[in-house]
Specification:
24% of the residues lie in helices and 27% in strands. It contains ten helices and 16 strands. Strands 1, 2, 3, 4, 5, 6, 7, 10, 11 and 12 form a ten-stranded mixed sheet that branches. A four-stranded mixed sheet has the order 14-13-16-15, with helices on one face.
């Protein structure tokens, strides 16, 4: 469901007017959140709506929920799950607003500031609230108990349990009717109880829940307990499948090495602003190929400076950060300018792209030039592409000049 649709629902928790449409009402020994326009003769419980992600932690949505014979019994067992912040906007922003709204609603009815169980923190105790814990009973008592061998309702009959749980479940189903979670897939198809956990884990969901409050007035401890009862869950997008580790897939056949990236020039920055660039190139130092990094500056917009070498080779390539969008031509122009600097025999600290243009500096960006095939060939040959036949002549002239200089000295 799109954000424009779900955000127009009456009880969408992140809606600014939600708080004004609900209020708390006494219900026996608890308080429940109801619709504001409910009259005294007819109380409509408020069913809250929110889009969130299902946490993979403390997810008890199997057929028998959090049942564990060491800690609880089947009549008290519950389905439990935790809603966390979704990655997708604008639902991510809405989730933060929903947490604030629920916190204010709690304070409206709470006695004191000790509020427990509904809003939770994934970190240490007392940390920032970042989740909503919801639950639902796995069953409800039957008004009339069944005899062994009696026909069961479809919900109770569809429950699958482990072999070691069969004896206790066979007794339990005669006195209780199972109430599986109402979960629907992306195409609104019902999810069978034994598949719920697999479908919900890490999924983006549209969840419907009701809220209840109790005040525990103990002799030693006084606190508020809040609960969120799940009414319905619609899966909007299932969690992505985990990609198997390529290292484990390779086994002992040999080491696995990740594929090298083919970094393409990225269009960035509009206008004629000047910027600083970190230029990395390869250079022969004492007979060894060494990566040299120099900071150069100059205008990014160099539309008139072109080089056929740019179109004949793969690089150098750039990695850019903190720059707005611009045309591809402007990006290529700067790549050419930096490539021309990289082709020099050396780049000193005063090297500047501003030699190629007279634009004034306005803001800064960072471009990293990484190793390219053309620069590799340059380091191996000791000069620019196409200069191989002139290398010997230049070296001879340089030796003669050095010899004359020594004689004069």
């Amino acid at each position: 469901m799109s954000h424009s649709t779900v955000s127009r629902m009456r009880n969408y928790v992140a809606d600014p007017g939600f708080e004004g449409r609900v209020h708390w009402k006494k219900n026996y020994n608890s308080n429940i959140l109801i619709e504001q326009d409910s009259d005294e003769g007819k109380v409509t419980e408020a069913v809250c709506v929110l889009v969130a992600e299902i946490s993979q932690s403390k997810l008890y949505t199997d057929s028998l929920g959090n049942y564990n014979p060491q800690y609880n019994t089947l009549p008290t067992a519950k389905y439990q799950l935790t809603l966390t912040e979704p990655m997708q906007e604008p639902f991510k922003k809405d989730f933060a607003l929903a947490l604030e709204t629920i916190e204010r609603l709690q304070q409206q009815i709470a006695t004191g500031n000790d509020n427990r169980y509904l809003l939770v923190s994934s970190g240490a105790a007392g940390g920032k609230v970042d989740g909503i814990r919801l639950s639902a009973p796995i069953a409800e008592p039957r008004t009339v108990h069944l005899e062994a061998g009696s026909a069961l309702d479809s919900d109770t009959a569809s429950i699958r349990v482990d072999l070691d749980q069969v004896p206790v479940y066979n007794t339990f189903k005669l006195t209780h009717k199972m109430t599986p979670l109402r979960v629907f897939g992306p195409d609104d198809e019902p999810v069978e109880p034994h598949m719920v956990t697999q479908v919900l884990r890490g999924a983006l969901v549209e969840v419907y829940f009701a809220m209840k409050h109790y005040f525990i007035n103990g002799s030693e401890k006084r606190y508020n307990t809040f609960g969120g009862r799940v009414e319905q869950i619609i899966v909007l997008r299932r969690a992505a499948d985990e990609i198997p580790s390529p290292f484990r897939q390779a086994g002992r056949k040999g080491p696995f090495r990740p594929q090298l990236m083919d970094i393409k020039p990225m269009a960035s920055l509009t206008g004629d602003a000047a910027h600083q660039y970190t230029l990395t190139y390869w250079k022969e130092v004492n007979g060894a190929k060494t990566a040299v990094a120099k900071v150069v500056s100059g205008p990014y917009h160099l539309a008139e400076k072109r080089s056929t070498a740019f179109h004949q080779t793969n690089g150098p390539s750039f990695k850019e950060k903190n720059v707005p969008n611009t045309s591809q031509d402007e990006a290529k122009s700067t790549l050419v300018a930096a490539a021309e600097i990289a082709d020099k025999d050396d780049v000193d600290d005063s090297s500047s792209l501003s030699d190629l243009s007279e634009e004034a500096p306005e803001q800064e960006a960072e471009v990293v030039v990484v190793e390219s095939d053309r620069l590799k060939r340059k380091s191996r040959r000791g000069g620019r592409p196409g200069e191989k036949e002139r290398t010997g002549e230049k070296d001879s002239q340089a030796d003669q000049k050095e010899s004359k200089k020594r004689k004069v000295d």
